[in-house]
Amino acid sequence: MATRTLPRMSDPAIVFGMLDGMLPHLFRPEQRARLAACGRIADAGPLASWEDPRADALLRDAEILVGHWGCPTLTAEVLDRAPRLRLFAYAAGTVKWQVTDAVFDRGIVVTSAAAANAVPVAEYATAAILFANKGVFLVRERQRDPEAHVALDLSRVGNCGTRVGIVGASFVGRLVIDALRSTDVRVAVYDPYLAPAEAATLGVEKLDDLDELCASVRTLSIHAPDVPSTHGMIGAGQLAALPDGATVVNTARPALVDQDALTAELASGRLSAVLDVTDPEPLPAGHPLLALPNAFVTPHVAGAMGNELTRLAELAVVEVERFVAGDPPLHPVGAADLDRIA
Length: 342
Ligand SMILES: NC(=O)c1ccc[n+]([C@@H]2O[C@H](COP(=O)([O-])OP(=O)(O)OC[C@H]3O[C@@H](n4cnc5c(N)ncnc54)[C@H](O)[C@@H]3O)[C@@H](O)[C@H]2O)c1
Known about the structure:
By secondary structure, the protein is of the alpha/beta class. It folds into two domains: 13-116 and 306-339, NAD(P)-binding Rossmann-like Domain (Rossmann fold, 3-Layer(aba) Sandwich), CATH 3.40.50.720; 118-297, 3-Layer(aba) Sandwich (Rossmann fold), CATH 3.40.50.720. Helix content is 35%, strand content 13%. The strands form two sheets. Strands 8-7-6-9-10-11-12 form a seven-stranded parallel sheet, with helices on both faces. A five-stranded parallel sheet has the order 2-1-3-4-5, with helices on both faces. The chain is elongated and about 65 Å long.
């Protein structure tokens, strides 16, 4: 391996915080080698608990913490045990459960790989939108069970000029918008944080009224974060505003949708849904949503899995490389972002 030449922190101690056993799935050998070239990997075994007997010694030295799923929360007490910590590079999406105010108060730089996790979610959502518009899910159910009389208005199926609503021009929402640009669907967006000029650059119509958006689309795809202001944002009123035969795609979080109201609409046969997120997760066998022919339900699989995990690792490695080299992070997370981001 080439010797290090970066003008930077002097051989920083790098510690992993994540579920035991995740490292081999997360990092390709080449990515591990790049991380090792940034500093001193203090212990190859990740910490999944701050009560781990190794934690005191590892935290005392740690200058860089690379986190992933299962990384325990960085409270003020934990940070007291980690006085040298300067970077928390989170190799996964939502970082808000791992950090506390104390992290930001101490000036520790936090980065997230949400942008990388957004890629497979957007692929899933884009596929779901195009399949829903085409009537694929319902056609399949009709073929499987002709006696079920699954309603489908064939005169309205297809992706030619069909209007799609995106709730949230988030990392995921923007990737979905990008992907749909190569199709003939028309995209309208609801996002109070999206500036009109940005909407124009994205090539979408921005609507300031969520009910108006719902009333005008055949498929509504939800990509806003789970924050207090978004809870129940797709309620009975918004669902009622959707036209007959419309589909709700939710790859975001269950709290954004009134699941009881949606289930009632699905049971009536008026709407369809593609749901990667539900309450609870996963749904227990026999749950009504699993029995409905117009509900396509998956157990929270849209985000990175399998070989997609290395994409999360790549972003974390790049953030560590940049930090050690004195370059600004690509995807920093600040305390003020937490009520706006996933
Ligand atoms: N199913 C999965 O496996 C999976 C994986 C990753 C992310 N997710 C979920 O997907 C969603 C998007 O994730 P992300 O990382 O792209 O989010 P993000 O952090 O990029 O979202 C933040 C953006 O959402 C928009 N927003 C904020 N409040 C809004 C509101 N009230 N209405 C509309 N838009 C609003 C703003 O543009 C903001 O910048 C989140 O709910 C996240 O939890 C699910």
